[in-house]
Write a structure and sequence with these properties.
The structure holds two protein chains of two kinds. Chain A is α+β, with helices and mostly antiparallel strands. Chain A has two helices and three strands; from the N terminus they run βββαα. In chain A, strands 2-1-3 form a three-stranded antiparallel β-sheet, with helices on one face. Chain A is elongated, with a radius of gyration of 19 Å. In chain B, 36% of the residues lie in helices and 20% in strands. In chain B, a hairpin with an 8-residue loop joins strand 19 and strand 20. Chain B starts with a helix and ends with a helix. The chains are: A alpha+beta, B alpha/beta.
């Protein structure tokens, strides 16, 4: 029994969820709920695709929380300096 | 097979599995960060003891103030939310404060192990993008300080010196984390490609783990912090107490039998994590040392039933748990309370999931397997880490859509293979990627190992694949006897296996060894076993070196020390000047040897000293000195041992107790 995700000859989809997290999924299985296919290919192609496109690995909710915090902090700083 | 017959049992099984798992997953977790949960504990009971070390007790309020001071310094140094801060410090109360301070500043800590070579530290720092290094007095001259901006955490924490009666801190720092999805730490495990993998663990992961209902019995009120902080057992040792109002009891050095006996006997620790290797070593050498402790959690490797049985009969008041989980699912994904066990029982199960955790056994088409069938272990729930830092491709192959959870959730593919018993508890069988092929047959090493380990004369077994001269693979097994010093007959063991397994699964060679060599992470070191097999094939063992003449007493002491070495290392011919570490010893084995030396010679010597004097001759001379003037230490059994050395040990214990009560 080996992991299907270690099979160099396997065919996969690259899928992404609402948090902008990427994953591989066997091409011949249904796309799981909550995931959207972006590309497909063999193991090496899909791994390379993910390495190229998933640049910021923070989940989307964290990215927006951090951006909101940064904005709030910038405003506080402006208030103080004003 | 039609789709219907394939789907029906699948659905039944799914319901069964999910019922078992969801029943256990009822905790409602706060959507919050580690510093916030800690702050609640401070508010509830500011005077409770948060951290205890050899020389001080630190209350929650004081730890809060100390970590606030360092957090402020970190911000002054430019540390911002989302940054990564490397931590190279000895195990101490300052280390606990430092980790909390990094979290309060909104950054993730990246623990470095002082035992690691600099090349690995460079790889870790480069891979995780650290710009600041926290050090202390003991690591300030480490060569990493020449490559990275660093800060003396112990100096920044400084002295408390509060005015009598005044509050410790009037200006709290607060918490700069950005919610539960922010990273708390990045811990590194070895990667198959050779570069370490940085596992990114979030506040949600750790809060969920620390608030598991399993820790609420009162048995985890005082936990020993003795694991390297670069190893995720420290998540249990630090954050379970700090987030539940308990006490972190810091062991500055290596935990050994004497320390566990002393702390447990005095009620200073109620529970401890012992990796399967250390647990096995202590169980063989000195199982009574755990008698004062309420719970021992072990795991990280196959837990030998014989070791558990020895501990259970020596410590009737102790409960032993097996905890299982990779770093990627935050310390433990499953746990198993070990009932009374017999030495011949099958390997200890890993049990069922922790709170807010789901464990699926799937086949290679990602379908749930039937109970009794083996499957790969996939873990879902709040313990699933964010992924591997800077390795998106690898993350996408291991952190997969959780087809049984809320749409969009992820599950982690552990690569472990397990079987589910009818009662729902899981037993590990081996690794998915360890599978070996011999003469075209697929072989699951875990299966052969568990059959061998079930033999009454065997406590543990490891399967190896050695190369024969023609280049094909051949199975070999290394077995550890159930009784110390036992020599099970390899031919009889092969006959035993041949009665239970297909012929192609019976190892061509079975080698008896007194113990198993372990890696720094308490896993069995297959490399050493394989090289020993190859060396044994290459020729006869080296002759024992000639030595200078010794006094009769020294010669006698050396002979006893040599016997203990043989028992611990599983080698027969050792020269008196050989290094313990060159003959297959490691720090865990040294702890086993230390316990045996103390018991045999009735002395109470610090285990650290043994790291410095690693030959039989040096140990014998040291033991003679430790035993004081006269004709050297006397093995237990001689009446003098009980009267002299025993009295010395008792006097020392009394002093320790007096010191403790005096504080």
């Amino acid at each position: 029994m080996t992991s299907p995700f270690d099979d160099p000859d396997g065919r996969f989809h690259v899928v992404v969820n609402g948090e902008e997290q990427y994953a591989l999924w066997p091409e011949d299985l249904d796309i799981p709920a909550g995931w959207t296919p972006l590309a497909s290919g063999d193991l090496a192609e899909c791994t390379a695709y993910v390495d190229e496109h998933w640049v910021d690995m923070r989940p989307r909710s964290l990215k927006s929380a951090m951006a909101a915090n940064a904005t709030a902090q910038a405003r506080t700083t402006e208030d103080v300096s004003a | 097979m039609t789709a219907d017959t394939r789907e029906a049992p699948q659905r039944r099984d799914l319901q069964l599995q999910l019922r078992q798992e969801w029943d256990d997953a009822a905790t409602l977790l706060p959507q919050t960060s580690v510093p916030e949960v800690f702050a609640r504990r401070v508010a509830e009971e500011p005077g409770a003891i948060a951290v205890e070390s050899e020389d001080e007790e630190i209350s929650y309020a004081r730890l809060d103030a100390r970590s606030d001071r360092l957090a402020r310094r970190l911000v002054e140094q430019g540390v911002a939310p989302g940054d990564h801060v490397a931590v190279l410090m000895r195990r101490s109360s300052d280390l606990v404060a430092a980790l909390l301070a990094v979290a309060k500043a909104g950054a993730a800590f990246v623990p470095l192990s002082t035992r690691d070579p600099a090349a690995r530290m460079h790889a870790v720092i480069a891979g995780s993008g650290c710009r600041l290094l926290l050090v202390d007095e003991t690591t300030q001259d480490h060569e990493m300080t020449r490559h990275l901006a660093y800060l003396r955490a112990d100096v920044a924490i400084g002295a408390d010196a509060p005015a009598p009666g005044a509050p410790f801190e009037t200006d709290p720092f607060g918490d700069r984390t950005t919610g539960p999805e922010a990273l708390l730490y990045i811990m590194h495990t070895s990667g198959s490609t050779g570069a370490p993998k940085g596992v990114a663990v979030t506040h949600r992961n750790v809060v969920s783990f620390a608030l598991d209902r399993i820790w609420r019995s009162g048995d985890h009120d005082r936990i020993l912090f003795h694991s390297p902080h670069a190893f995720d057992a420290s998540t249990y040792e630090i954050w379970v107490p700090l987030l539940t109002g308990g006490t972190v009891v810091v062991a500055s050095g290596q935990a050994d039998a004497a320390l566990l006996r002393r702390l447990g006997g005095a009620g200073r620790i109620t529970s401890v994590w012992l990796g399967a290797g250390l647990f096995g070593a202590l169980a063989e050498a000195d199982p009574e040392c755990l008698a004062g402790i309420r719970q021992v959690w072990t795991g990280g490797d196959v837990v030998p039933p014989a070791a558990v049985a020895r501990v259970q009969s020596a410590c009737p008041g102790l409960t032993v748990y097996d905890g299982y989980g990779p770093t990627e699912t935050t310390t433990f994904a499953t746990r198993h309370r070990i009932a009374r066990i017999h030495p011949e029982d099958r390997p200890v199960p890993i049990g069922g999931p922790m709170d807010n955790t789901r464990v699926y056994l799937l086949d290679d088409r990602l379908r749930l397997t039937e109970p009794g069938e083996s499957g790969q272990v996939y873990v879902a729930g709040d313990g699933v880490a964010r992924g591997y830092v800077s390795q998106p491709g690898l993350t996408a192959r291991r952190f997969l859509p959780d087809i049984f959870g809320v749409p969009g959730e992820r599950m982690y593919a552990t690569g472990d293979v397990a079987r589910r018993a009818p009662d729902g508890s899981l037993s590990l069988l081996g690794r998915a990627d360890d599978q070996v092929k011999i003469h075209g047959f697929r072989i699951e090493p875990g299966e052969i190992e568990s059959v061998l380990a079930a033999h009454p004369e065997v406590s543990r077994a490891v399967l190896l694949v050695s190369k024969t001269p023609d280049g094909s693979g051949q199975l070999a097994a290394v077995v550890v006897p159930a009784a110390p010093g036992g020599r099970p007959d390899p031919e009889a063991l092969r006959g035993y296996l041949a009665e239970r397994l297909p012929a192609h699964m019976v190892p061509a060679r079975i080698v008896v060894r007194a113990g198993l060599p372990l890696t720094a992470h308490d896993k069995v070191d297959h490399r050493i076993l394989i090289s020993e097999l190859a060396a044994a094939d290459a020729g006869p063992a080296a002759p024992v070196a000639h030595t200078a003449p010794e006094s009769a007493a020294t010669a006698q002491t050396m002979a006893r020390v040599a016997e203990l070495w043989s028992a611990v290392l599983g080698v027969d011919r050792i020269a008196v000047d050989d290094s313990f570490f060159d003959r297959g010893g490691n720090s865990l084995k040294l702890i086993g040897l230390h316990a045996r030396l103390c018991r045999t010679f009735g002395v109470d010597i610090p285990v650290q000293r043994l790291f410095e004097i690693s030959s039989i001759r040096a140990m014998a001379l040291y033991l003679q000195k430790a035993a004081g003037p006269g004709d050297g230490p006397v093995p237990v059994g001689d009446p003098r041992a009980a009267s002299e050395a025993g009295a010395r040990g008792a006097a020392r214990r009394d002093r320790i107790r007096a010191r403790r009560e005096h504080r």
